[in-house]
């Protein structure tokens, strides 16, 4: 089964829209194969049907995220993490018209507002990407013969539930600050 459909926006023309769930670095069907319709808020007509995540799908996503965290991301250097975040910002900026058009189509906001949102996402990812290699622990002298130290350490997987009307901006505003804070284990 194909997990993309061709959609059209007035600004960018045809593009391939994923309709699956992004789990373990790939687009997949929902476990229960249930779908729901995404409606155009201006016309209330269906735009596309996408796979619906159930509790089972969330469990699979959390397990995949934990595995990635424990085997890959936790070991990723802060320099590499910074490069990845800045690359993501570059990709989003390169595709600003498409991302804004999809955001506008999905929630009915003006294309001008959607472009502003995507621009804010790019700026936010760049800002936190710049911090990724600058977060370090501290040594604190508390007495002449004693000191304490702090060391940022990764704690694990987190999840978020975001509103339907501001998904792209809500995603970046909660996720981007976390990426640089997860430091590689020493």
Automatic annotation (TrEMBL):
The keyword Acyltransferase does not apply. It catalyses: an aldehyde + NAD(+) + H2O = a carboxylate + NADH + 2 H(+). The keyword Oxidoreductase applies. Keywords: NAD, Oxidoreductase. InterPro entries: Ald_DH/histidinol_DH (IPR016161), Ald_DH_N (IPR016162), Aldehyde_DH_dom (IPR015590). Residues 27-177 form the Aldehyde dehydrogenase domain. Pfam families: Aldedh. Gene3D superfamilies: Aldehyde Dehydrogenase, Chain A, domain 1. It comes from the Eukaryota. Its EC number is 1.2.1.3. One of its GO terms (molecular function) is aldehyde dehydrogenase (NAD+) activity. Belongs to the aldehyde dehydrogenase family. This is aldehyde dehydrogenase (NAD(+)). The lineage of its organism: Eukaryota, Fungi, Dikarya, Ascomycota, Pezizomycotina.
